[in-house]
Amino acid sequence: MSKNIGIKELAKIANVSIGTIDRVLHNRQGVSEKTRQRVLALIEQHDYKPNLLAKHLASRKQFSIAVLMPASEDNPVWQPYVQGIEKAARDMEKFSVTVDHLPFDQYDPQSFENAAEGASAYDALLMVPLFEKAAMRLKDNFARQGKSCLCFDTNLPEGDEHLFIGQHAFQAGRLCASLLNYTVPADRSLLLVNLGRKAGYHLNFWGRENGFNSFFKGKDAPQRKLIAYEGPIEQANHLEQGIAEILQKSPNIGGIYVPNSRVYWVAHILEQLQRTDLILLGFDLIPENKKYLKRGTIDFLINQHPENQAYRGVEWLMQRLVFGEKAEPGSTPIDVVMRENLEE
Amino acid sequence: MSKNIGIKELAKIANVSIGTIDRVLHNRQGVSEKTRQRVLALIEQHDYKPNLLAKHLASRKQFSIAVLMPASEDNPVWQPYVQGIEKAARDMEKFSVTVDHLPFDQYDPQSFENAAEGASAYDALLMVPLFEKAAMRLKDNFARQGKSCLCFDTNLPEGDEHLFIGQHAFQAGRLCASLLNYTVPADRSLLLVNLGRKAGYHLNFWGRENGFNSFFKGKDAPQRKLIAYEGPIEQANHLEQGIAEILQKSPNIGGIYVPNSRVYWVAHILEQLQRTDLILLGFDLIPENKKYLKRGTIDFLINQHPENQAYRGVEWLMQRLVFGEKAEPGSTPIDVVMRENLEE
DNA sequence: TTGAAAGCGCTAACAA
DNA sequence: TTGTTAGCGCTTTCAA
Predict the structure, then answer these.
(1) With A211 labelled, which of A15, A81, A223, B108 sits at a CA distance of 20 to 30 A?
(2) 0.85 exceeded by the pTM?
(3) Phi, psi of A188 (to 5 degrees)
């Protein structure tokens, strides 16, 4: 494994100066077609690969990455994302990349706009596009300037899958359906509880619902009675009544699916009603949910690996900026967590 | 965020040359205690952080990492690991780190010894320590020379958890038990099929078995009849007889647990016997297993994310070598895969 | 005990 | 169209 050839050796072989080599490498003008071809051939032939460390050092560039994401105070689900960002920020420092979290209020479009404004000064953008229109505009802005933009957690409705890091919501929904289908006897029905549907990242909710429902449709699909309940957004007491009524009306219900992190609300209610016999399935390993998972009131939680998503998002952007790489972001596993594989 | 101070500015402020700064940074001799203290204070005060790119460039060091792992021809489970290694090798190139796969035969201790011999010339080691004694010796060798060594897939019996990337076998076993407990009616029994117990990485098998059994022990544990069957290692026809007999003898069996990747053998047999009604659970997303998962003969597979493990192992070693970092490797999720979240 | 200087592989400004 | 040169922030060697 002989050490890689460098720009200097290349110049010597080609009988030109390193300046010329540099010019053809960056296909800048000022090189005659003849020498360009000659150098190109040599580059090919010797399998020249630039030393990216030297490159980065010499270019003396400083990059900045903006992370547009709700404040973690808004909702505990954001906490681990913030941790991922912070870790990434520390790790990216050595590449002269700075990472800033520009928080917004997940319920306030205006705050998103404000944060977006601040983002425009950065070299790359990582965001949770909770507000479609504004997010689209911002994304297009970045694209127009040739700057990278990556979505995480939630994708844009027409978002490029290759510019997204996060869980496939539809697939996750199907998986949940299958899990309930396995664990709840076939003659019992399933309840889908919608909470906070209008309160934020609708797209993931939507996908998880549709995926769930899709599982029971189609020719070979298992037959199940499904009941849907649209809960209030932020009023736990109304919810309690609603759930109690439904369970009374349909005593046949054997499992409950909550396609978001608010599953602990339902868990709480089930404990009140002493109906912990029901299989309960929801999303996200937030502390409240873990508590009920440990107790057995919640049976399954789907983990989205938020910390990892955030970290990988930053890392991916850094690699674009610093190393000019363009690999795909890679997918997020749909991780089923039970009491037994809950860490600590 | 003003740009980080460098060795040069530091020298100017301290009224010494950059050579002296360098000496105290690497606490080399040849600096008077007085100036050393002065410089140290300045470093602290200005929060100096070395530019690791420049450092690495100037040190003109080339690092090499050896990956000691079975040949992928031996067993399809190794295939994705190899891919992870290859991807890592490509990505590490830019840091002047070369990665070589030193394959051995997973059934032949001598071949491990041979490969281990070759590994001693490398700067760091990533290995699957299938043969305990030899692996321990090798590991100690590396430790003695102050070189890093990391295990993946399987840990050493007394291996440091912080020097291991892989799934927690015991936890995985418990999870499988819980899954079967959920999906198989309480009055039916479970069959544990041991295949190839003596054929290789016993430690993971052992952990997965023990975890599984532990789930049904203890005061609050669910009551289940468990049946264990020790299958032959490499003789599928014997196995077929054995399974058929057991199922005949114990018609009450409702689910089967195979704590390794050979679950497709059992799947094949179940199809022969037309007993695909049984819940079947095993490990690893190898092509054969995926086939049966898609068909529904296998119900659950536990994914160990082998490609990821391998990649992260190499990356972790690279970061130690190049950047001197010492963060923990991080854990591998116990990923439950069903037909619905099988990719593609 | 200290300083000066060359050089790592590359970029970019300036000359020719 | 091409070559030359001065760095980027650090390591390392040699001289003082």
Answers:
(1) A81
(2) yes
(3) -105, 155
Closest chain B residue to the Cα of A62, Cα to Cα: B3
Give the containing element (helix H, strand E) for B256: strand B253-257
For residue A254 the two structure tokens come to: 């054997």
Per-residue pLDDT, averaged over B286-309, amounts to 96
> Which residues is A189 bridged to in the sheet?
A253
A30 touches strand D (CB under 7 A): yes
**Number of C-beta neighbours around residue A206 at 10 A:** 16
> What residue segments make up the domains of chain B, in order of their start?
7-50, 63-167+306-333, 169-303
Asked if B143 has any chain A CB less than 8 Å from its own CB, the reply is: no
Q: Which of A80, A68, A75 is nearest to A304 (CA)?
A: A80
CATH (one of 1.50.10.100, 1.10.260.40, 1.10.3730.10, 1.10.230.10) for B7-50: 1.10.260.40
Question: How far is the C-alpha of A186 from the C-alpha of B180, rounded, in Å?
Answer: 16
**Residue A158 CA from chain centroid, whole number:** 15
Structure confidence by residue, pLDDT tens digits, B29-73? 888 999 999 999 999 998 888 888 888 888 888 899 999 999 988
Mean pLDDT of A263-275: 96
B63-167+306-333, CATH topology level = Rossmann fold (3.40.50)
Would you call B333 and A178 a contact, using CB atoms and an 8 Å cutoff?
Answer: no
From the list A130, A89, A40, A39, the residue with the least C-alpha distance to A318 is A89
Give the amino acid at B212.
F
pLDDT at B212: 96
**3-class DSSP assignment, residue B165:** strand
In whole angstroms, give the CA distance from residue A65 to residue A121.
9
If you average pLDDT over every residue of chain B, what do you get? Answer: 90
SS3 content of chain B, % helix, strand, coil (to 5): 50, 15, 35
Q: Strand order of the sheet with strand A300-303?
A: A226-230, A189-194, A253-257, A279-283, A300-303, A335-337
Q: Computed from CA positions of residues A100, A101, A103, A106, in that sequence, does the dihedral angle turn out positive or negative?
A: positive
Nucleotides of C under 7 A from a protein CB: 1-5, 7-14
By C1' distance from the Cα of B56, the closest nucleotide is D10
Q: What's the one-letter identity of residue B153?
A: D
* B53/A contact by beta carbon, under 8 A: yes
Fold of the CATH domain B169-303? Rossmann fold (3.40.50)
Question: Over the stretch A156-213, which tens digit does the pLDDT of each residue have?
Answer: 887 777 799 999 999 999 999 999 999 999 999 999 998 765 555 478 888 999 999 9
Which residues are CB-contacts of B252 (< 8 A; sequence separation ≥ 6)?
B187, B188, B189, B225
**pLDDT of amino acid B1:** 42
Q: Which of residues 321-340 of B touch A (CB under 8 A)?
A: 323, 331, 333-336, 338-340
CA angle A256, A258, A259 (to 5 degrees): 140
Q: Tokens standing for A241?
A: 């009544």
Query: Is the confidence at residue A330, as pLDDT, over 90?
Result: no
